[in-house]
Amino acid sequence: MSEKKIVAYVERDMEEIIPFFIEESKEEIRQLIDALRTGDYEKLREFGHKIKGSSVTCSEGFQEMSDIGLAIESAARQKKSLKEIQALVRAYVDYVSHVEIIYVD
Fold first, then answer.
1. Which residue, 19, 22, 80, 91, could crosslink 84 as a Cys pair with Cβ 3.0–4.6 Å?
2. What's the rounded Cα separation, in Å, for the pair 56 and 80?
């Protein structure tokens, strides 16, 4: 089974901050997983909101990441099953862990 290649096309003028953005996203994963384990819908909603906003603010190239954040935020707001939210969190972890950044002019 092959993994889907995840590519984000990011403006070259963002090249200095993107590594920090990705590292921060990786560090937040533990907190996101903790919120999932404890069933803290409010924290899950907050994380989803933050993911949605920060990824698009950083670059339009992270639209897929923003969409995942929106889905987490929406699912937590609607108090969907934790299993459903877990799948979204897994998609976020996969994205952050495997995204390849390509800088464009």
1. 80
2. 25
pLDDT tens, per residue, the chain with 105 residues: 446 789 999 999 999 999 999 999 999 999 999 999 999 999 999 999 999 999 988 888 999 999 999 999 999 999 999 999 999 999 999 999 999 999 999
For the entire predicted model, the pTM comes to: 0.91
